[in-house]
Design goal:
By secondary structure, the chain is α/β, with parallel strands linked by helices. The strands form 5 sheets. Strands 1-15-10-13-9-4-5-6-17 form a 9-stranded mixed β-sheet, sandwiched between helices. Helix 9 packs antiparallel against helix 14 and helix 11 runs parallel beside helix 13. The longest helix has 27 residues. The two termini are 44 Å apart.
């Protein structure tokens, strides 16, 4: 899970590459081409005044570079044809709520043409009407796209009937249901929609709707494709998470190109503390490199992508906890456990209801992009709610090897050594929880309206079962036949039984004034 960096936004048409030894070499070239130059040839490039530069060159050893991922060479060009092939199989989900349609249109303009656009809106009714009008105009030249509102009554009924009832809730003052509010819930709706309506899409990506630089969106989508192409473990599921080059802020009239957002600084730090605690508890030693490390740098990555099979297999969290919970879920399911199989099975009973056992290996690719990330300015309370949600993912859902609640389940006969080891592991988990509470207490502010809740403990995220539990055939037919807000544009393989038209806002018979 090392950090990969984008070196060039456009590396040309991409000379076909082949693997030679442990490095990628342009096809038709010889790996020894540069070896014909000896040290004296390099010395001639520098004058006597450039002694420091010669020292820098001689001291640099690619094998010492911690950013090099095992199985991936230090530098590699992904052929454009390969990127286009992956992008042509990708759906990009854009969750939105109240963003200016012009800003959303800028985000859409940065999504490569081969990708399917999926706009999932939780805006108020009239705003969604404007968003759909914008989308239809944008897609007028045969651009494929889907749009749906999170209050769609048919989608809520389909989730409720075909396997994911936890995702819906009763509308206040009514007898019908709607999908719960929240970013995570909107993303789950998008995943289900793509899997049911466009099953040929093998990859699903997520891009926030408030990004104000379309060129950054274009880079993000190509970075997703590059991450899938660079997976050094063929046959494994893949998750690609982006770390921005910078997240600029205006301070004292000048732009400060800070590298991390305020929420990311907090969430990354505590995810790494979690990983370090798991390394201490790991009897196999396979996590030793993670101890006291800063391996995780994308804990709050709103811009991320994964193989569709992985998206369907993961439990997902509500709201802004969804991205940090990815790491918590994967660590819980895939990291070595310090308990034997029988104890682990007992420990997970009740604690991880809905989890899918035996998740196949997952490769996480973290990529640092080149474009600065400009987006809508958020206030301090919003930032606090985001990192508090991330801390809640850790605090309330520690992996089984650190979770003290598992001691409530009677353990099978085991050795004294096992009991001692498990007790130490649980103590590490309790210490991590205590440290989180101390952090909350130290960082509350007097004007923070939610300080009482946050200081006591971080909010507990709602955890949903994997989307794979949904009967996709039933979901597709119900949404297709009874939808109120679904739009399918330029999808010849999928037709609605009746076309949607831009119509006045509905009244309350469908809940929270679904607009179309």
């Amino acid at each position: 899970m090392h950090l990969i960096e984008v070196l060039e936004l456009d590396a040309g048409s991409g000379i076909p590459l082949e693997t030679v030894g442990s490095a990628y070499t342009p096809q038709g070239s010889e790996q020894g081409d540069e070896s014909s130059l000896d040290d004296s040839d390099y010395d001639d490039l520098f004058s006597d005044e450039d002694e420091d530069m010669r020292d820098l060159e001689s001291d640099t050893d690619p094998e010492d570079d911690e950013s090099v991922l095992d199985g991936v060479p230090p530098e590699v060009t992904i052929p454009q044809a390969q990127l286009d092939s992956i992008l042509g199989q990708m759906a990009v989900i854009v969750p939105c709520k109240g963003e200016d349609p012009n800003t959303i249109e800028g985000v859409l303009s940065g999504i490569p043409r081969g990708c399917l656009i999926v706009l999932v809106s939780n805006s108020e009714g009239r705003a969604y009407r404007k968003e759909v009008m914008m989308l239809r105009k944008f897609c007028r030249h045969a651009r494929p796209a889907l749009a749906i509102h999170q209050s769609d009554a048919a989608a809520a009924a389909a989730f409720n009937m075909y396997g994911l009832p936890d995702l819906v809730t009763h509308v206040a003052g009514g007898s019908h249901k709607r999908i719960r509010n929240g970013k995570g819930e909107g993303m789950m709706l998008g995943i289900a929609l793509v899997a049911a309506l466009c099953p040929q899409r093998r990859y699903v990506a997520f891009v926030d709707a408030d990004i104000t630089v379309p060129g950054a969106v274009n880079e993000y989508c190509r970075a997703f494709a590059a991450g899938f192409a660079l997976n050094p473990n063929p046959g494994t599921e893949t998750m690609v998470r982006l770390r921005w080059a910078s997240k600029p802020k205006v301070r004292n009239g000048e732009i400060d190109y800070t590298c991390e957002g305020r929420s990311s600084q907090v969430v990354n730090r505590w995810l790494n503390k979690l990983l370090s605690a798991m390394a201490d508890a790991d009897p196999t030693g396979s996590l030793a490199a993670a101890r006291d490390s800063e391996i995780i740098v994308t804990g709050n990555a709103g811009e991320h992508a994964m193989t569709m099979d992985l998206a369907l297999s993961l439990r997902l969290a509500n709201g802004y906890a969804i991205e940090p919970f990815h790491f918590v879920e994967l660590l819980d399911q895939l990291a070595p456990q310090n308990v034997n199989a029988a104890a682990a099975a007992a420990a997970h009973a009740g604690y991880n209801a809905g989890r899918v056992p035996n998740l196949q290996p997952v490769t996480i690719m973290q990529i640092r992009t080149r474009n600065p990330h400009f987006h809508r300015v958020t206030d301090d309370s919003h930032v606090r709610s985001m990192w508090a949600s991330g801390l809640g993912s850790i605090y309330h859902h520690l992996p089984a090897s650190l979770n003290n609640s598992t001691t409530q389940t009677p353990s099978p006969p085991s050795s004294a050594a096992f009991s001692s080891s498990s007790s130490k592991s649980f103590a590490r988990g309790e210490k991590l929880r205590g440290d989180i509470l101390d952090f909350l207490a130290d960082n509350h502010e007097e004007h923070d309206n939610s300080k009482g809740e946050l200081v006591h403990e971080p909010p507990r995220p709602r955890i949903y079962p994997p989307v794979r539990q949904l009967d996709l055939d039933g979901f597709r037919e119900m949404v297709r036949s009874e939808h109120k807000t679904l739009y399918c544009l330029n999808l010849p393989h999928f037709k609605l039984p009746r076309p949607n038209t831009i119509a006045p806002v509905y009244h309350h018979q469908y809940g929270v004034t679904p607009p179309l």
